[in-house]
Amino acid sequence: MYSEPMKSVSWSSMVAPLMKLGRDGEVAAFIGTGFIPAVSETVFITARHVIESNPLAEGEKYYIYFQADDGSEIQKGASGDGVMLSTRYDVAAIPIGEVPGVRALYLDPTEIPMNEKVVCREYSGNYFRAHDGGKRTAVFHPRTHVGNVMSWYTSKYPEKYPAPSVELSFPALQGASGAPVIRDYGLHVIAMLVANVEQELTPAQVLSVHRDEECLLEEVRYFLPVGKGLRSSAIIEFLEQECGIRCTEPPPLHLQGEVL
C-alpha cells in the first residue's frame, strides 16, 4: 500500500471548515478548520482552543462541509457531546461517525527535511454575504499555502506542558487553526496549524525623525508572522493515550520517478 500524491486528489475531500449551526439550522459562525485522520474511530481533528473559544449555545451544533472527488456534497453535524479535548496539547477530536467520500489523512510523526515542500489548506477566508431582508449566505473561501518547515522545536510557551512543534514559512490566519500541514509527496500530515509566531514585535510602520543637519529620515519596519504547528506525534499521543483510538501507520512514500 502506498500513499497517493497530493496532485491526484481534491482538497475539498480532505480538509473542511468547522462551523456552528444555529437553532434555525443556518450557519451561525465560522470557527476553524479541520480534517479526518486515518484512525480506528472516525473523528474530526481541530485545535482545542477553537472548541474552548466557541462553546455551543442551546440548540446549536458543530457542522462540517466536505466535497467528494466527484463534487458531491458531504455535510455532517455533531453535537458537543463526546468532544475530546487534550489535557496536554492544543488539539481536540469531535466524534462524527462514518463519512463516506472523505479521504482520511495519515498522521506522520516523521521529522522531514526542512527543504521538503509542504502544503496547507485552510478556511480563514470564509465570510457571510448579506441580502435584502436580513438574510445572509455563508461563502466558503479556502486558501492554500505552499512552503516548508523552518524549524522543529519543543514549545514551552504559552503551553503549560512542552509541545512538539514546528515553525512554518507561512502564517496561520484567524480561522486556519486546525488545518493540516501535509507533505507534498502524499497524504501525510506532519503537523496541524495552531498559532502565529511573530518574528519582530514591532508595529508595521515606525516613523523616526532625526534632526541632523535638518535631515529627516522615515524608518519603516515590518514583522513577519510565521505559522506554528503542533506536530503529528502529539496528535497521535492524544488519540492513542487519551482517547483510546488507534492510529494507522502511514504507508511508505516514494519520490516521483522512483522504481517501486
Care to describe what's here?
This protein is mainly β. The protein is about 5% helix and about 35% strand. It has 2 helices and 17 strands. It has helices spanning about 50, 230-240, and strands at about 15-20, 25-35, 45, 60-65, 75-80, 85, 90-95, 105, 120, 125-130, 135-140, 145, 150-155, 165-170, 180-185, 190-200, 225-230. It starts with 14 loop residues before the first strand and ends in an 18-residue tail after the last helix.
What does the largest sheet look like? 8 strands, mixed
Q: Number of helix segments?
A: 2
Succession of helices and strands = EEEHEEEEEEEEEEEEEEH
Helical residues, percent: under 10%
Instruction: State Rg.
Output: 20 Å
Strand proportion, as a percent range, falls in 35-45%
Q: How many β-strands, per DSSP?
A: 17
Name the overall outline.
Answer: globular
Report how far apart the termini are: 11 Å
**Structural class based on helices, strands and sheet pairing:** mainly beta
Return the average pLDDT rounded to an integer.
87
Unreliable stretches: none
Give structural attributes.
260 residues; globular; single chain; 4-stranded antiparallel β-sheet; mainly beta; 2 helices; 8-stranded mixed β-sheet; 6% helix
